[in-house]
What does this fold into?
Amino acid sequence: MDYVRTVFDFLDAGVSPWHAAAEAVRRLEAAGYARLEEHAPWALEKGGRYYVARNGSAVIAFRLPEGDLAGWRVALSHSDSPTWRVKNADVAQGDYVKLETEGYGGMIMSSWLDRPLTVAGRAVVRTSGGVASRLIYIDRDLLVIPSVAIHYQRNANDGRKWDPQVDLQPLYGPAGCRSLEDLIVGEASVCPRSDVLSWDLDLAVRQKAVAIGPGGEYFMSPRIDDLECAATTLQGFLDAAPLADAAPVWGMLDNEEVGSSSRQGAQSTFLSDVLHRILLSMDLPSQAWWTCAANSLVLSADNGHAVHPNAPEKSDPQNAPRMNGGVVIKYNASQKYTTDALSAALFQEICRRAEIPTQRLANRADMPGGSTLGNLQSHSFSAPMLDIGLAQLAMHSAVETAGTKDIGHMVRAAGAFYAAPLRCLSDGRFDLA
It folds into this structure.
């Protein structure tokens, strides 16, 4: 399989968290996974393949073993990326019409200037039976956030502090133009206009994923963080050979970039709700929750920083991963990353047996890094866990850069992880035979 093309297609499709979830669902259903609904009872069968979505932007999928369930193999990523969320549409500004937005997550603000943009997300519409969500993507070059000319700011290249309320609002069109609301009504296929009740819309970069370098060694795309991990772990999940007594679980959660505190984020009970319902549906004893957790391993998959060609001093010289160098294992003494010696050893041994390279990431002691979803998810599901990812440049830019070879590294690592016959023998002792 051309894993690079597969991941590029996922990146191109995932123009918003809701679109990323829809693409994951499309791939799961094509592989024979049946949809479950949280509001309905679950009747599960051994060997069955299932998935469930929450709020349209988070998805959890799982396969049940043919034998007795003894543990989980869980890989989690996130569907969201830093962007601008539309606050008001069709705002008059002299001879122009603008959108008013506010920032979602921490981004490199200047990277959003002077490039074609559009809007993507969902609209909630009135139907004959109530309300329903519709995906919205205006598939055209629609917007721009224009820079102020250097003639008006001679110190533009001396560094500046951006005011998002003033400097980063997108230009939509001239006064009197067709409204954005009209475009949304057309995309949602509703009539009358009043049937569009509300929406969640983000600005979306129009650039597609593209390979660069003399031999296509690298690639550029919006939303590499974290849709690259979402796509590669999903492919590994779909490729993996089944285990007799463990259930592979793949999850893509939302709102990691703003703290994961939503009902579809890592601080929610979404994962634990799903796992509890699996155990109840299989009529397992009450202690199965704890015994299965102890026999599990969880990957928090979110990209890390590659050593930068123009700023290598930003990386710790002994812990600076490179693009195309393999799967990154992330360490932090303050437990912003969940990796410890035991979880790292288990994952490294799985990768070693499958001949997949790994590398280590730890930040400089005087330069704290960001956190991710792993330590938040562990509040509701306590199992051995580590943070992994792939090395990339320009994290949280509108367009980021990563290594093409690493796509295959992560797909194969995820497949090996899901197929690993892991068994806890005692506290701190595991069998991988």
Q: What stands out?
A: The chain has a mean pLDDT of 95. The chain is about 25% helix and 30% strand. Residues 84-205 form a domain with the Aminopeptidase i, Domain 2 fold (CATH 2.30.250.10).
